[in-house]
Design goal:
The chain is α+β, with helices and mostly antiparallel strands and 424 residues long. It has 2 domains: 178 residues, no CATH class; 222 residues, no CATH class. Helices cover 55% and strands 15% of the residues. Strands 1, 3, 4, 5, 6, 7, 8, 9, 10, 12 and 13 form an 11-stranded mixed beta sheet that branches. Strand 3 and strand 4 form a beta hairpin. The longest helix has 44 residues. The chain is elongated and about 105 Å long. The relative contact order is 0.18.
Length: 424
């Protein structure tokens, strides 16, 4: 006697009831899968991109915004800081590494970042094609930028002021040229366009200065760059510029843990700049997000509880409707244990199908977020991964099936053949 096949036919015989039970439970499991995949990947991205950075220094404002903007590039700058002040901070004996960033422009929603070679080196990003930027208005782009915008070596484009929906005027007199493309790294650089800081300064010059730059070209169309805007750096790695020049922020790594504790207070109290700890702000961000995640998890568990109750009631009612069938099976030689197992298998089938559907639905939703939503694309969220915890979810679904079917199975086990047949 094929018990799983008989159980499956019992489910098919009640399609509406079976479908609703499977749907409710699968939705609860799908929400848990979605939260698990998104939170795990988001946490991994934050940890990976902030690794090795002790402090972000920028203009006064929100510390959270400062970190989100300058490390993860998912917010707007708080402002700019004077280059001489940044240079003075970078020369501090406690600073091991200082990476300057100049932000403000973008191309097709991808941020253009003025920096130095220490930035890609910090994330251990390798070149896939071409070379690193060298002169003004040359860029090296992330792998995702190249793929999504179909940019190749030698292509040119005009940047625009701002990001996302806040894009302003386009800098038509200062086109960038693609000199290189990075290999995929899984870091934030995959979604960035990197150049030198002098390029960021150049595109924001006064119109007459931009026109002068446009006129300084040789017969091949190559720029004769301003001497002050060539890629020149001080020993600290910061660009050489005038006292009125500004950058957006400094990413600092200290020589000792003690410096990471003392320097933020010194900067915040004694300068016009602001210091924010990535580790502290990420912890605070997780605590804020945790409230929403907990609410959604609670909703998912409520749906699972409703599904468990619904499955139990369905199996219990089905047992009453099928008691004559079970009595016939007993009279034809089926043992009590087989009837017990038959009902248990039915409960497992419902929850196992729910788990499979929930897993598929959860992964599809996460993959859609990563594919269609702009922020999902930039954070690299994907549904094409499988976490070990998902095995536990499937095993948990099997346990739920056994649990919900246990009492109806005991009732089937205690079936009184003669009494039921006499009633029939």
């Amino acid at each position: 006697m094929n018990l799983p096949l008989i159980s499956l036919k019992y489910l098919i015989a009640k399609p509406l009831s079976s479908f609703l039970n499977i749907l409710i439970l699968s939705l609860g499991i799908a929400i848990i899968i979605l939260l698990l995949l998104v939170s795990r990947q988001f946490e991994g991205e934050l940890s990976k991109n902030s690794k090795g950075l002790d402090l972000v220094v920028g203009a006064k404002g929100s510390p959270m915004q400062l970190v989100l903007c300058n490390i993860f590039h998912i917010d707007f700058p708080t402002g700019n800081i004077p280059l001489p002040e940044a240079e003075k901070l970078a020369k501090n004996p406690m600073v091991k590494k200082a990476i300057p960033l100049a932000l403000g422009d973008s191309y097709e929603s991808f941020r253009i970042v003025g920096t130095n070679y220490k930035y890609p080196e910090h994330y251990e990003v390798e070149l896939g094609e071409g070379e690193l930027w060298e002169h003004e208005l040359e860029v090296t782009i992330g792998s995702s930028v190249a793929r999504k915008l179909n940019l190749k070596i030698g292509d040119t484009f005009n940047s625009a002021h701002g990001m996302g929906n806040a894009v302003g005027h386009e800098h038509e007199n200062a086109p960038f040229v693609v000199k290189g493309i990075f290999k995929p790294s899984g870091s934030v650089i995959d979604n960035l366009i990197l150049t030198n800081i002098q390029s960021i300064w150049a595109v924001h010059e006064h119109p007459e200065e931009e026109e002068e730059t446009e006129n300084h070209k040789d017969h091949d169309g190559h720029d004769h760059h301003h001497e002050a805007h060539e890629q020149k750096f001080s020993p600290t790695g910061l660009p050489i510029g005038g006292d009125d020049e500004e950058i957006t922020s400094l990413l600092l790594k200290f020589k000792s843990p003690m410096a990471a504790i003392t320097m933020p207070r010194i900067i915040n109290e004694n300068t016009e700049m602001q210091a924010a700890s990535p580790a502290f702000e990420i912890t605070r961000l997780f605590s804020l997000l945790g409230v929403g995640i907990d609410i959604m998890e609670g909703f998912a568990y409520l749906m699972i509880f409703i599904a468990v109750l619904s499955i139990f009631i369905a199996l219990f009612n089905a047992l009453k409707e099928r008691k004559y069938d079970l009595a016939i099976m007993r009279s034809l030689g089926s043992s009590k244990s087989k009837l017990f197992v038959l009902v248990i298998i039915e409960g497992i089938l419902i929850t196992l199908l729910s788990a499979i559907l929930g897993l598929m639905l959860g992964h599809c939703v996460v993959e859609s977020i990563g594919y269609f939503l702009e922020e999902g694309q930039k954070t690299g969220i994907t549904g094409l991964i499988f976490l070990p915890e998902e095995i536990l979810i499937v095993l948990g679904a099997v346990f739920i099936g056994i649990f919900t079917a246990f009492i109806p199975a005991v009732q089937a086990y205690k079936t009184d053949i003669s009494k039921i047949l006499a009633q029939g």
